[in-house]
From TrEMBL:
Monomer. Keywords: Cytoplasm, DNA damage, DNA repair, DNA replication, DNA-binding, DNA-directed DNA polymerase, Magnesium, Metal-binding, Mutator protein, Nucleotidyltransferase, Transferase. The record marks 5 as: Substrate discrimination. The active site is at 95. Pfam families: IMS, IMS_C, IMS_HHH. Mg(2+) binds at residue 94. The keyword DNA repair applies. Its cofactor is Mg(2+). Its EC number is 2.7.7.7. It is found in: Cytoplasm. The gene is dinB2. Belongs to the DNA polymerase type-Y family. This is DNA polymerase IV.
Length: 352
């Protein structure tokens, strides 16, 4: 979906259409969750601080996120996907992979299917979507950004190698800012430069990711579209309007976060063994502290108790701007064990 959260806000509020809109907190400590294309022209991006966003775009309009509304529309969009194929792998509320090799419409053209789906989304929701079409998930993902907004790009099998060779190295999935800078130092600027390097050379400099880079630049990516993605972790975090230096205030915030996690765990019917506390200090340095226990938990009191222990594990080195808690090592990682999940929640219910 194109600028999904911001587009939904513009859809529901005609006064916002054609204007620079940012979904997210407008306070000095807020962070932009999504930006309309009008705002992006001024360099406003997701994950940017509200202060910088406002500095870049003085006329920027901030709106509070409405995730229930976004989920509602996301559900409508997925219903359209399932009209064409059952092989749908959601990545987030606004993005998914579809395998249409065999599809319910009997249409041999993935390009035409993508156009039909985009038209159906526009008709049903009033929103624009973009698509990438190719031989595997990696190339389709890259192609989906080529003609944004409200466009699509097909990379035919015979075009794959040339397409990847011309690609800026920063466009490759798995190449972030740090990796890109390292590649630049090694003289790797495009896919063609990357392809000249041997697998041994790439693994020497990038570890296991080296094999990934070696394969994808040759159009090799064997990951299937998985309709039922297994959740690996679940968590919540909060950024504060003012830095917190008192551990008493931190505990209050952690209690609120633990309550939110319990709600999400219950809704997802999962529990976890590993609790991780995330701390971001006022100087933007980040620290995580984890503990793994020998049984699954999904109760806020147990989560909070372990989070407290992690908080007091060592003295704070600075005031804190963000706290977060996450659970991993979930009981979904070895398959959907409904009976085991039922026992976990019953046990917790009786314990408290």
């Amino acid at each position: 979906m194109d600028a999904f959260y911001a587009s939904v806000e513009q859809l529901d509020n005609p006064e916002l259409r054609g204007k620079a809109v940012a979904v997210g907190g407008s306070s000095q400590r807020g962070v932009v969750s999504a930006a309309s294309y009008e705002a992006r022209k001024f360099g406003v991006r997701s994950a940017m601080s509200s202060v910088i966003a406002k500095r870049n775009c003085p006329d920027l309009i901030f709106v509070k996120p409405r995730f229930e509304r976004y989920k509602e529309i996301s559900g409508q969009i997925r219903e359209i996907f399932f009209e064409y194929t059952d092989l749908v792998e959601p990545l987030s509320l606004d993005e998914a992979y579809l395998d249409v090799t065999e599809n319910k419409k009997g249409n041999p053209s993935a390009t035409l299917i993508a156009k039909q789906i985009r038209d159906r989304i526009k008709e049903k929701t009033g929103l624009n979507a973009s698509a990438g079409i190719s031989i595997n998930k990696f190339i389709a993902k890259i192609a989906s950004d080529v003609n944004k907004p409200n466009g699509q790009k097909t990379v035919q099998p015979e075009e794959v190698i040339a397409f990847l060779e011309e690609l800026d190295i920063r466009k490759f999935y798995g190449v972030g800012k740090v990796t890109a800078e390292k590649m630049y130092r090694l003289g790797i600027f495009t896919g063609k430069d990357l392809k000249l390097k041997s697998e041994e050379y790439l693994t020497e400099h990038f570890g296991k990711s080296g094999t990934h880079f070696y394969n994808v630049v040759r159009g090799i990516h064997l990951s299937e579209v998985k309709p039922h993605r297994i959740r690996k972790s679940l968590g919540a975090e909060r950024t504060f309007n003012e830095n917190i230096s008192s551990e008493i205030f931190m505990l209050e915030r952690l209690e609120n976060i633990a309550e939110e996690i319990e709600r999400r765990l219950t809704k997802s019917k999962v529990a976890g063994k590993t609790i991780t506390l995330k701390i971001k200090y006022s100087d933007f340095t980040q620290q995580t502290r984890s503990r793994t226990i020998n049984f699954y938990i999904a109760n806020k009191d147990l989560i909070l108790e372990i989070a407290k222990e992690l908080l007091y594990q060592e003295k704070m080195k600075n005031s804190v701007r963000l706290l977060g808690i996450s659970l991993s090592n979930l009981n979904t990682e070895k398959g959907d064990k409904k009976e085991e999940q039922k026992e976990i929640f019953v046990q917790l219910k009786f314990k408290f």
